[in-house]
Every structure is written in C-alpha cells, then in structure tokens.
Amino acid sequence: MIDTLLFDLDGTLLDIDMDIFLEHYLQSLTKRFEGIFLASELVSLIMAGTRAMIADSSPDRTNAEVFWEYFFSRVDYQPEDILPLFAQFYDEDFPRLAHLTSPKPEARQVLERALKKGFRLALATNPVFPRQAVVERLRWAGLEEIPFAVITSYENMHACKPHLAYYREILAALDAEPRRCLMFGNDVAEDLPVAQLGVRTYLVEDHLLNMADRRFEPDYRGRLADVVSFLDRLDDM
Ligand SMILES: [Mg+2]
In angstroms, what is the span from residue 71 Cα to ligand 1's centroid? Predict the structure, then answer.
C-alpha cells in the first residue's frame, strides 16, 4: 500500500520551461555581479560548479558545500565579498523571474486531495538550488503552504538527480520504504531512475523531458490533471 508521494517541482507542479528560465536566471545573476565578474566568466563558474555538485554524491559534503568549494577555488574573492550579493540576488532579483512560470491549478487540487486521503508528501526537486529559491518557486506555483514532510535543496542533500544516492537520501529523510512510495515527475531521465530502488513512478506528461530515454518505463503515466482521479483509484492498486 502506497503511503508517501514524491513530487518533482519544475515542469511537474509548476509550469516552467527550464531552458528559458535558466537563460533569464543567469542574465539576472550576471547583472547583480556587474563590475565583479564578466558575465561569461560567472556563467561558466556557475555551470561548472553545478556540474561538480551533480557529479559528487559523497555523503561528507552537502551539495552547497561542493558548489561553493568549487566556486571559491577558482576566484580571488572571499566568501564574505560574494555571498551577500548572492543573498541579495535571491531576495530581490530571483522573485522577479516569476513571470517566466505559471501556476498549474490542478497541482493544488492533486496535493490537497492527496493530503485529504492521508498521503505524506515530499518535494523531490533536484537539490541544485538554495531552499529560498525552491520555496519561492513553490510560491509561484501557489503551493507555499502545502505541508511537505521533506523539501530537498542544496543545503540538506549530498547528491543530485538522477543519482540513486539522491533518491536513497530523500527516502531516508522520510524514513520511507521504497515499495510504499510513488514518484511523480516529468523528466524520464531524472525522475524515473528511482524505480531501481523499488519506488513506483508516474510520468507526468504535461511537459515531458528526455522522452527518447528508453531505460525506464513508468508504472503509470498521464497528465497532472488525471492524478486527482488516479489517487482515488490508487487504494485498489
Ligand atoms: Mg521536472
């Protein structure tokens, strides 16, 4: 019997085109750092730091620690010079990216239905962003007060999607048995590998990504709007 539902955020609960979003995100970030970093230099650093974070699943360092260690090993600035500007960016500039996304009314219906039916919820968003940026996107999605048992972010995780270390870590944080969990996501390559741990998967087809990846077949598939009635049938599955 399933008792825990894991939801991806971007493209699953929030309408967002990540390519367009990242382009604006990086533009806005480089603007905040004008006069400190060349735009191209900062973008390269952020991208390489993010790749380093995704590649490193070591349990000794959080994703944030891996990212910043990489970052500060390659610049002449000290954290106290740079981190306040990042904080300002997330306080003042990041919220202005909201217009690049749209809430999905059915996301709220799905999560409220799930809560009413007694499911425990987890937000299994790829933990490459600070918690503040995740909570902000939840606000854009109109889901800021949904009581998720766990929200993954770069501060509290030591691995990233699509690595099983990430999925093991979120399951451990939930103290959940894989066979009692179901993962909803829109990205075949990032969200479905959790099936290897025995977690059932539901591919949300509203904004499908990496559909050419044939390694994993979801147990279920459909639009997010279909999930409301799916949850009612889930008791019998
Ligand atoms: Mg996604």
Answer: 26
| CA of residue 40 to ligand 1 center, whole Å | 26
Query: Is the CB of residue 192 less than 8 Å from the CB of residue 216?
Result: yes
Q: How far is the CA of 201 from the centre of ligand 1 (A)?
A: 13
Q: How far is CA 211 from CA 5, 198, 199, in A?
A: 22, 21, 20
Distance of CA 165 from the midpoint of ligand 1 (Å): 18
- Answer yes or no: is pLDDT of 177 > 80: yes
Torsion, Cα of 124, 118, 202, 107 (10° steps): -70
- Ligand 1 centroid from CA 80, angstroms: 33
Of 75, 78, 52, nearest to 64 by C-alpha is: 52
**Model pTM?**
0.97
Report the 10 Å Cβ neighbour count for 205: 14
pLDDT-derived band at 80 (thresholds 50, 70, 90) equals very high
Q: What is the structure's pLDDT at 56?
A: 98
- Closest alpha carbon to 224 in 18, 9, 22: 9
237 C-alpha to center of ligand 1: Å? 25
